[in-house]
Amino acid sequence: MLPPRLYNTATRSVVPLVLDPKRDVTIYTCGPTVYRPVHLGNLRSFVLADSLKRLLLALGCGVRHVKNITDVGHMRQELVDRGEDKVVAEALSAGLTPAEIAQRFTDEFFRDEQRMGILAADAFPRATDHVERMVEIAAALLAAGHAYERGGNVYFRVSSFAGYGELGGSLSRAGLRQGVRAEVDPLKQDARDFALWKAAEPGRTALIWPSPWGVGFPGWHIECTAMSTQHLGPQVDIHTGGVDNIFPHHEAERAQSEAFTGVGPFAGVWVHGQHLLADGLKMAKSTGNAYTLSDLLVLNFEPVAFRYLCLTAHYRARLNFTFTSLRAAQTGLRRLRQHVVQWGEPAEQFSADAEACRVRFWTLACEDLALPRCLAVLWSLARGSGAVLPGEQKAALARDFDRLLGLDLGLPTPYRPADPFRGAVSSPSAVADAWSAPDRCQLSVIVVVQPDEDLAAVERCVESVLRERHGLDLEVVLVDATGSPARHSSLVSRLQDEAQVRMVWIDHDPGAAAGRNLGLRISRGTYVVLLDPSVELVGETWPRLFGLLNNPGVGGVGPFGLLTADMRHYYEPPAVATPIEVDALQNYLMVFRRADLARVGPLDEHFRFYRILDLDLSYAIRDRVGELLTVGDVPVVLHRHALWEALSEGDREERSRKNFGRFLKRWDHRRDLARHGAGRTDLASAEAAVHG
């Protein structure tokens, strides 16, 4: 069997892995940052490293595998205070020390890997145990002219390393351009330079260490250099991680490692796994679409079913996670195990035909880990060309293949639990679009319930709509996007007696925009309202708003308008009874005609977080339908906003900033859309409702 061939990010090509039979193959894997449970996207990356390790072991190679644990923070104190230094912030919120929170999630990480059938690494070095070495490396780079010190901070001098940017190619070049355009640390000599050591600011008391440059803490990238060179030497055969590690982390790690040791290349092969997506977006906590293994266990999914799902896509291809695909993976895994049980005891030796099948499997595995094709070879034993083999031969092949696949194929098939999402849809597109269907009532009120929503507030909101309908023929379209069967049951029990409530249940939280799109798809009212659960109606609300929409030049109305002069700062106008034209309407309560939906189009589902989504929708209505009007005497009350309160200040700012950037990219150039706040002197002293 030929040596494995792997795609090397550094060369942008599939290359043979050079194996020295006299020593172990060394693998370094970027491990978790332990301020929270690892999510499924992280686990997909770890399955890649595990599959590679399993392949080498099956080929008879010795393997030395190191996977680091990042248990330090990297942020400045003002970001710690805002909740952006994740290790410190999580510790503070949980009432634990940083060391305690790191240990808690390190233990959870080990349990998750065990449940997934991931073989334990030979070493799990912790960053906090290697700070002294990080200081030594920074000092050595400083002495060699590869770094410089400013105000107690030590920066790597990128210009001193000729090959910087070569690892990621165009990806690194794009990242460098973005970094140059961003706000630059004034202490840097070059915008491309990165921190090896950061001075601790006044007030920082956690995760700080002494150094020749004063008390401080390490930069992000130097950790892996310290741990990999200490545990594996100046070079590693294979370095694994996710594609999001290529720049800046691995680019910086490569540069500082080779500059420190004087030996290159730092890694013989760089192997990067593609993103796991959810609803078409990279799975990430900051995006709000991250799921953990514990989430799957609560829903009666077997952890190894997710491993099976990972095997169905090549590691260099993006994989879109849905509960539908996970259910299919669990079903496939159960059926495979049933076949293996039916095949009986494995043969002690392979027949010629079985050996040919075995060679085909391992040859595919050696060709850049073609695991989906390997899985197909396994399935061929059940319903393909290999099905003619005797049962004992198939049983032996299955167990041989499982050394790589890690699916526990020899286990008995577990009891099949009931589907906890029976009756739920998996995506908004799974629901028929009713935009062109005839009206069925006068008004559709859409209320979207996301995971952190207050269910009592939802009940209060819906009951106020029904109480204040005053004979109006309406429906409440309740979109349950909690992703929780238990919370769904609670919603059903709270509102099951309300005939005007139509509930649609989706098996996960698709995000703010997608949840609203789902409600819009099934609405059948002449008018449509997007209503936030924090709103309570306390009087007759609709006739006046409908009257304003009788003018075809008006595209939308609501009681919460916004004005701007520069598209960077938005202000709420003083509440007046006379309708005024505004630049945008806020998410709390927005009314428009259903007939205009075809022109406006669906909401952009990249807006998973609700904030700024209303600006994007408002400008789409102004561009394609007509003006927006607000009136200030609508009888409504705003209560606490549960989704906002559930986030740390850092998470709020990060998600808002991403959405605001997306909004500006689409609309900032549209000077033809008037800015109604221009020249308004009464807004000069007002507090901005939305600040870019």
How would you concisely characterize the structure shown here?
By secondary structure, the chain is α/β, with parallel strands linked by helices. The protein has a five-stranded mixed sheet with strand order 16-15-14-17-24, with helices on both faces. A four-stranded parallel sheet has the order 4-3-9-10, sandwiched between helices. Strands 5-6-7-8 form a four-stranded antiparallel sheet, covered by helices on one side.
How are the secondary structure elements laid out?
Elements (H helix, E strand, L loop, with lengths): L4 E4 L4 E4 L8 E5 L10 H19 L4 E5 L9 H5 L4 H9 L3 H18 L15 H13 L3 E4 L2 E4 L13 H12 L12 E6 L16 E3 L3 H11 L3 E7 L3 H16 L5 E7 L2 E3 L2 E2 L10 H6 L4 H9 L7 E3 L1 H21 L8 H15 L4 H13 L7 H15 L35 E9 L5 H13 L6 E7 L4 H11 L5 E5 L6 H11 L2 E7 L3 E3 L4 H8 L4 E5 L2 E4 L4 E3 L8 E3 L1 E2 L3 E5 L3 H4 L12 H12 L2 E4 L5 E3 L3 H4 L3 H19 L22 E2 L1
Parallel strand pairs: 3-4, 3-9, 9-10, 11-13, 14-15, 14-17, 15-16, 19-25
Antiparallel strand pairs: 1-2, 5-6, 6-7, 7-8, 11-12, 17-24, 18-26, 20-21, 20-23, 21-27, 22-25
Which oligomerization state do the chains in this entry correspond to?
single chain
Count of DSSP H/I helices: 22
CA radius of gyration is 29 Å
Low-confidence region ranges: 75-84
Helix content: 25-40%
Textual characterization of the structure:
With 692 residues, the chain is of the alpha/beta class. Helix content is 38%, strand content 17%. It contains 22 helices and 27 strands. It is globular, with a radius of gyration of 29 Å.
